[in-house]
Design brief:
The structure is a homodimer. By secondary structure, chain A is mostly helical. The first copy, chain A, is built from 19 helices and no strands. In chain A, helix 3 runs antiparallel to helix 4, helix 3 runs parallel beside helix 7 and helix 5 packs antiparallel against helix 6. The longest helix of chain A is centred in the middle third of the chain and has 40 residues. The first copy, chain A, starts with a helix and ends with a helix. The N terminus of chain A is likely disordered. The interface between A and B is large, with 79 and 81 residues.
């Protein structure tokens, strides 16, 4: 070890013939030279982690504090300041990504280590779609700037250009590098990755804030129109006329694209966070195999019910948005309708998740305990993002209980039921998703200690034997099994029979689970669509506002609704993962 | 495996001579009986964790939503409701603790597994002190209730009695059971422990809310007295006269005891959380040894400077509290004084932590990577609780920058410097603490694979040899070494010499580290005392309020100040741990 010899030299000096004072100054010189070596040497991992996490957090907090100042509409802090800050951060991320890609290109190590669980191809595909919508949004922003360029700051034009560039290169980065396990220049790359994580988080925060402000302004305008309140809305309009005819079209369309942009940024930051966690990690070759996705026969009830849920949600959304703006009566009717719809929907979802859990209780599949930062993060994010909507629900419960006995709107009881079901539904669904992610299929276990070949196209020997046997008892699958029959091998009779029987019931259970998963998947999409496009009865029902006051309740909503939106999108992604895995 | 045979039975039915429909109904019967067995059997650990975490979180959120409603001072939700809820939770925790202790008593397994790292004796001692102060607070509350019993709810009398009972039995539980690693009735105990964790967290929230409200009322009264604003304060006074003469004494003294009660509850919940994490854990015998604490010669500069810091803090506190209530001039002078004091203090702390990090860079002690939930939690809590005060600091920076060029108070620049230094100080101190917690002493490493005896009173053979050699080059330690000389054993010459030299420089570095740690320890106590007892210039300086508005800024402060208080106390505890370990 290097440090040993260094220490020896220092200590030898102590024992040399020179006087104590000169030896100590000598030792100090050595100490400084050693320090220089030590600072340029590899920095301990734990410290690098802490340091980079602190760097990223502070970046985010700077941005958040500027946003808070901006929300006050004071004279000193303007939107330009915030956008300049974000633009600089995006440029820094661009430079880092470029450096990283060039270095990777130069290295050309034959097989760089890659984490098979990080960023599956379907999630990258989904993100590419979201990124495309973000690019359209940037185009609208540029169009808006062109129309008003004579009287608004140039930053508002530069920002969407840089953002578009950032989006394109980030998607490229996600496709080709997100699975990389970095083992070189760890400390430097750690800062680069965490910078990217928090830049995306900041972009998410910015989107959430813009959307919340827009929604709140709409809400106030609506309240004023209905004669409830007379709160002046603060909307900053440019002080000149638009030179093109489509400016107002641009600015209104923007708000329909915001939800996609918001989800895009938070998902990217979650993926980059997994990459950060993977830096310097030694992969376990056994657990780092990708599971092939399973066939899905007998999918009928789940997708059908799911489509029904989706269709009814869109109907509810349209009816709600039309009716809530009209008179007092239609407003109350629209809110009642929403809660009734919600109660039915959530009850079905609770039932489905509960049934899924029961299937797991019957089927004693073993748990998978391998290390997998991606899965750990998924679990934590699910639980963490539930917090917001749980708080919102409990506040509704308290409000419904507090207004008991007084002249309260007709939907008070359905609101109470809706809130309680929302809490229950998230609990049960979280349990179902977590259990599904941590379960291992039985054949995995049987195969795991035997086969290490990464190139094997199917699940392995034991599995193929199962499939061959499958044909005997389930002739419907004949076509698919036929192709693989040639690979089938006979084992001893007893395990084969056991496997055979196992497979029959397991197949039926798997079918149930698949149906449940696809149903939940579509329900979660429905419940994302509603608040994302403006159906937020929590603002309109005036029940909670009475108990908590306007400012506390809007603060709660401004925190809870973005968390809830993220929760829904995140469970959609997790449920898709579960669907492929079951 | 049990489940295997169960599956076999079901599958055999399939292959029996009965018709398909009857066999399926048979299979369903079996399924249900199997389900019954499976539900009563051991529940998978991951699920039990998720379920219990969700239970606890929702308990807390119910409490928080009631608190939010309470903060509005509406007619429906009263303090009695909240206190009843908390009392019920405390009673449930009491029942669980009783059950647990009785069961443990009955079992009498010769050596229950215990996690050596959880709840060291000095932290339990500290908590006992805090608990005593909490008991005094309960006594005051009971006295207050007795005085006003004719016109206030009985809940206000029951609550302190149950709280006192809860405190006493919880301290008993901490002393005798906090290190237990639970391996029986895991699912049930998991719920019990998490219930205890969140009951304490809720008590913490309640304390924080009461204190914040009290402080805000004081602040408003002060502003009104100075003629700044005319905000009516909402303080609920009982509607009758006190029957004893000391009621007002009770109610004012309460607020001096709040800070201790608050710290007590959050520390207990952190310790119980470690216990929850330990449930079902298999301890690694090697890493689960307690490190003996080291001797500390040459402690002079650190404690002296620390005492100086402590004394000056108390002075600043007293001067601040007196001057801030007087005229406009003295108010501004008091705030200026606070910021100047803060800049000097934080600069010294940055210097000290930085020096500590440099010592670590020179000394290449290996990292300790053993599993240790207690340490992981410490690290995460340090980083997590820094967030609040970082946000506060960045807001101050933004405010100072935004008010530039306008007529601003004289302390604007010192406020800016103070805020930036606060961010830097927390970053560097966190790095120092994290690195210290994850470092291993060299002799540990040398000894680790050789000695497993838990009863060895000293560090082991190698270490004793060092100590004996120590005497030759450092005759000052003669007395201490003399006692142990008898145990000294001669090894081969070469390692001895290396060890000897190593020890000389290592001893000096350790001395530096000890001094730094004790200095930081006292500085953190100082910085806890100031806000805990009312020195909060963030309220008084009106700088941030101008930029962020009253409601946003008080929300930020109400979140950030309790987090900051916890951060200071937590780093005091961590630094004590570091001090014993270095």
């Amino acid at each position: 070890m290097v440090e040993h010899s260094g220490l020896d030299i220092m200590c030898l000096n102590k024992y040399g013939p020179s006087s104590s004072s000169s030896s100590s100054s000598d030792a100090e010189k050595k100490l400084f030279s050693k320090l220089k070596v030590s600072l340029t040497k590899r920095y301990p991992q734990k410290n690098a982690e802490t340091l980079s996490a602190q760097y990223g957090t502070n970046l985010l907090l700077i941005g958040v504090s500027v946003m808070l100042a901006l929300a006050q509409h004071g004279p000193a802090v303007k939107e330009e300041h915030l956008l300049t800050f974000i633009t600089v951060l995006m440029l820094m991320q661009l430079v880092w990504m470029l450096c990283y890609m060039i270095r990777r290109e130069r290295e050309r190590s034959p097989l760089p280590e890659r984490d098979a669980h990080a960023g599956t191809s379907w999630i990258r595909g989904g993100l590419t779609m979201l990124a495309l919508l973000s690019l359209i949004m940037d185009a609208f922003r540029i169009g808006y700037f062109v129309g008003y360029h004579s009287c608004i700051s140039a930053v508002l034009g530069v920002y969407p250009i840089i953002h578009a560039l950032h989006t394109i290169s980030q998607v490229h980065f996600l496709w080709f590098h997100i699975k990389d396990v970095i083992k070189k220049y760890e400390t430097f790359e750690r800062f680069g990755v965490i910078h990217a994580v928090f830049t995306n988080l900041l972009l998410w925060c910015n989107g959430v804030m813009s959307e919340a402000e827009h929604f709140l302004n709409n809400h106030r305008r609506r309240l004023t129109a209905l004669g409830y309140a007379n709160i002046s809305t603060v909307e900053v309009e440019p002080h000149c006329n638009c030179t093109t005819s489509v400016c107002s079209m641009f600015s209104t369309s923007l708000y329909y694209l915001y939800p996609f942009n918001i989800e895009y940024h938070i998902f990217v930051s979650a993926m980059l966070f997994v990459m950060w966690k993977n830096i310097g990690r030694t992969l376990d070759r056994h657990s780092n195999r990708k599971r092939p996705s399973t066939r899905s026969p007998g999918l009928l009830l789940g997708p059908l019910l799911g489509l029904l849920a989706l269709a009814s949600s869109v109907t509810v959304l349209v009816v709600y948005l039309i009716h809530v703006e009209k008179s007092e009566q239609t407003r109350e009717a629209a809110i009642s309708m929403f809660y009734c719809y919600g109660v039915v929907m959530l009850a079905c979802m609770c039932g489905a998740s509960g049934a899924g859990l029961l299937v797991y209780r019957v089927e004693d599949w073993p748990m998978d305990t391998g290390q997998n930062p991606s899965r750990t993060l998924d679990t934590e994010l699910l639980l963490g993002s539930s917090l917001g909507s749980w708080l919102m629900s409990w506040c509704s419960v308290v409000a419904a209980a507090a207004t008991a006995g007084r002249s309260s709107p007709s939907f008070r009881w359905t609101c109470l039921a809706y809130s309680l079901l929302l809490v229950l539904e998230k609990c049960v669904q979280n349990l179902f998703i977590v259990e599904s992610l941590y379960r291992r299929r039985r054949e995995d276990e049987a195969m795991a200690p035997e086969i290490f070949s990464v190139t094997a196209p199917y699940d392995g020997i034991v599995n193929r034997a199962y499939e061959t046997q499958d044909k005997r008892c389930a002739p419907l699958d004949a076509e698919q099994s036929e192709n693989r029959q040639g690979f089938g091998r006979k084992h001893a009779d007893v395990p084969l029979h056991a496997g055979n029987r196992l497979n029959v019931t397991a197949g039926r259970k798997r079918q149930i689970l698949k149906n449940i998963t696809i149903f939940l998947f579509m329900c979660n999409i429905s419940l994302w669509i509603l608040p994302a496009f403006g159906c937020r009865p929590q603002y309109d029902n005036a029940l909670e506002q009475e108990t908590f006051g306007f400012s506390v309740w809007t603060t709660v909503l401004n925190v809870a609704i973005p968390m809830n939106l993220f929760y829904r999108m995140h469970s959609v992604a997790s449920l898709f993962e579960v669907f492929r895995k079951v």
